[in-house]
Amino acid sequence: MIDPLAIAYPEGVAASLDAICGYVHLPALSKHIHEVVLAFALYQGLFLLGPFFGSFVSSYKTLNERTRLNFDIHVVSQVQCLLILALALPAFFDPDLQDDHIFAYSPYGGLVYAFAVGYFAWDSYISIKYIKWFGPGFALHGVASLSVFLLSFRPFLMYYGPIFLYFELSTPFLNVHWFAGHLPSGTISETVQLVNGILLLVTFFSARLVCGFYSIGRVAFDAWAVLDKMPLWLPSVVLTSNLSLNCLNIYWFSKMIKAVQRRLNSVKAGTTAPDLLTEEEDVKGHKME
């Protein structure tokens, strides 16, 4: 499949980009550098427009600085997850990626990964800039995610790109949940919140846990068949990273189930229902990608 943004490639610096990307063993990245920069600029622009979006919410100015920051981040996250899901969908049917699950390259697949890399570059930047609130763990998470997605430009595992990116299927519902918990009461109806909560649990379980562990198995099987054609560290890094993330997702899902149980018990008792996630967990929520 073709890359619709290839027309914007800076031909004047092509030789330099090819040399630099070849030197760092990411040769396919040179054709998509401009898309990484575009994605980063898009997400940073949305982040800077956070106060503008917040102006439509009466309580935005009353929020403390940390919560306003999280509001702005969740706006970016919502746009990013919807955009990347839309971009990744055609990649499932990209004929250039079907014959070789490990080393295949596609111009369109490169576009999709470029936007993912652009987001994680932005995420790393924000996590480091506000490390006093997010802590070093989230900065390391952002940098690690950025590094893993960059490996696709060797090229490596580009076939699995749309599968990995569709782990994001639960993120729109996670963001809606966060907004519902921080906007004025009644802004998002109880019915919408209930439906959203159910969809969050269903998509989180199916996309992140079921598909997550299944995909790890498929990657391991495919990589084993061609292990002699690549350095051992390459599949090891990707598999270890994804396995660690999936184990973390089990922890998050168990917290969600316990929160649902608390909510049901509160409804039966006629008391105020607790939020699906605590404030501390909400701050971490934008990292669940």
Automatic annotation (TrEMBL):
The chain crosses the membrane at residues 36-57, 69-93, 105-122, 134-153, 159-180, 192-216, 232-253. Residues 66-265 form the TLC domain. It is a multi-pass membrane protein. PROSITE patterns: TLC. Keywords: Membrane, Transmembrane, Transmembrane helix. One of its GO terms (biological process) is lipid homeostasis. It holds the Pfam family TRAM_LAG1_CLN8. GO terms for cellular component: endoplasmic reticulum; membrane. SMART domains: TLC. This is TLC domain-containing protein. It comes from Lipomyces starkeyi NRRL Y-11557.
